[in-house]
Amino acid sequence: MEIDRRKFLTIAGITAATTIGKKVIGDTTDVEQIAGLPQKSPLVGHRWAMVIDTRKCREKSGCTKCIDACHSAHNVPQFDNPKDEVKWIWKEHYKEAFPNQEHEHVKEGLLEMPAIVMCNHCDNPPCVRVCPTQSTWKRDDGIVMMDMHRCIGCRYCIAACPYGSRSFNWRDPRPFIKNLNKEYPTRTRGVVEKCNFCAERLAKGLHPACVDACEEKALVFGDLEDPESEVRALLRENYAIRRKPALGTNPEVYYIV
Amino acid sequence: MHDAGKIIGGLIIFLALITSPIWYNMASGKADYTPELKYVTTEKQCVMPTEYMRARHMDLLNEWRNAVVRDGIRVHTSHEGRKFNISLTNTCMDCHSNKTDFCDQCHNYSAVGQPNCWDCHIVPGEVQ
């Protein structure tokens, strides 16, 4: 086949356009081929963190959307007996969530207000230090992760965590899960569990379930090492506090009060 | 040997008793069968060659577990170059949704106990 100048230029042009296009848009072919994975590429961060705007959170009293979304996504059981309670995200009164950060003349009613609390994914996590099986550890992106396969149920981490973020499965949780999410495992009796910053959703390119569930956009998730991220913008513009900062755990959940 | 008869007789009874499960299984034909696996999928090929899966699926499951949980690697490339989401619940059980007619067949036959995978991972159809 003869290639004249016109044909050559057309082919060269198309090739150049595709190459540049692929670089600009990003090569998506890899993601599309994977059976059972959605076509979004995973979210990658260097220091995941969350900012909770308690002012927005208070707008609707009695709202439990984030809690419900999290607990149904992760098959968290609901026990009647508070001694058996398992929780990943819950409400705590301001005075209990932020001890030593209140004073006599604090804004009226604030101390009794609920604040949304969860695992703080500390930069210096005490639970990780005490775990004898390295069943809990800090990932490179800052998430303090649990490996249920390795947990022997010694509960050192529960004793070490100053935030009460960890729950022990005293009983078989399965009969107490209201709506089973079949895509996510349950836990077994004798292991500890806690919030995992929705590592399984980040892998699918989604934000954590609680963040997506909040209609007031009171929960914001992002990369703290990215100066352009939404969390950094919020922290630049607002004064935010953390839970029990004096303990030196460097919690990575920030509260705008 | 004063009591040779008693001793030899006793030994024979003893041997017969401790080997009785073998005789029983032989007589009843319970051990003399090949586990039959039911495939309920239209997929032709697993994530690894069938021979490998038959012999070493437990190693693959351990590798997958570590890859996802510890290293955050969630994509498996098969011997044919196909890519799969690494997940027991969502990938393995998608094709092998019949645990009783698949996993249990060999596990019961070879008496490899009850693997504790299912304490946490959900078997399709077993829980509602």
Report on the structure:
The complex is a heterodimer of chains A (257) and B (128). Chain A is α+β, with helices and mostly antiparallel strands and 257 residues long. Chain A has a single domain, classed as Alpha-Beta Plaits, CATH 3.30.70.20. Chain A has ten helices and ten strands. In chain B, 47% of the residues lie in helices and 5% in strands. Chain B is elongated, with a radius of gyration of 22 Å. The mean pLDDT of chain B is 89.
In short:
The complex is a heterodimer of chains A (257) and B (128). Chain A is built from 10 helices and 10 strands. Chain A is an alpha+beta fold.
List keywords for this structure.
heterodimer, A: 257 residues, alpha+beta, Alpha-Beta Plaits, two-stranded antiparallel sheet, B: 128 residues, mainly alpha, two-stranded antiparallel ribbon
What is the name of the CATH topology of chain A?
Alpha-Beta Plaits
How much strand of chain B? under 5%
> Could you give a short account of the major beta sheet of chain B?
2 strands, antiparallel
Average pLDDT reading of chain A: 89
Low-confidence stretches of chain B: none
Compute the number of strand runs of chain B: 2
Indicate the overall shape of chain A. globular
CATH architecture of chain A: 2-Layer Sandwich
Topology overview:
The complex is a heterodimer of chains A (257) and B (128).
Chain A: H1 5-25, H2 29-32, E1 48-53, H3 54-57, H4 65-73, E2 89-93, H5 94-97, E3 114-118, H6 126-130, E4 136-138, E5 144-146, H7 156-160, E6 167-168, E7 192-193, H8 199-202, H9 209-213, E8 219-223, H10 230-237, E9 240-241, E10 253-256
Parallel strand pairs in A: 1-10
Antiparallel strand pairs in A: 1-8, 2-3, 4-5, 6-7, 9-10
Chain B: H1 4-18, H2 20-28, H3 50-70, E1 75-77, E2 83-85, H4 88-95, H5 103-109
Antiparallel strand pairs in B: 1-2
